[in-house]
Fold this sequence. Notes:
Layout: H1 2-36, H2 42-66, H3 74-78, H4 81-110, H5 112-117, H6 122-129, H7 145-149, H8 151-175
Amino acid sequence: MLQRFSSRLARCEEIAAAALAAAVTCLILTNIAFRALGSPLYWISELAIYSMIWMTFLIAGAVFKRRQGIAVTLLSDLLPQTGRKLIGLWVDAIVLLFALLLVWLCWRWYQPLELAQAGFDTRAFQGHTFNFIYAENTSTLGVKKFWAWLIVPWFALSLSLHGWANLIQSLNQWRTPTQEPTAKT
């Protein structure tokens, strides 16, 4: 069930990233047209930047799920099947550890419990925690930046799920007997 949920989430992330890639293209072309007409819309550039950031984080989660990231396989290619499985298990464990660390850092960054304790009053929250995450606006869009930054906690949770699913899959592969290729004479 975890594998299916992780795969479906990765597919949704791929679709959302593709939609954002199309949106970035349209935003940039629109901005070019308005600049050529002598009336640039500065907020389009900022929206394109945030769209590109969201696209990158979304597709990164899907790439980790599918294990399609760039890898240096010089060492693993030289190892027997058991060694390759061990390296894969180690990589999956490190990815999961990183994801869980990122979840913890996002929790400390957003401090949702402290915000709730302050009655969702951002000024009281800032005065109590000296955390100004909820106060800063974007330059031209006029939106609070924490909304744009929500992709980082999303990525952390998504990567945790994908990392957990991949680690379980690696452990299951570790338990299955390996058959070394035999050399033909």
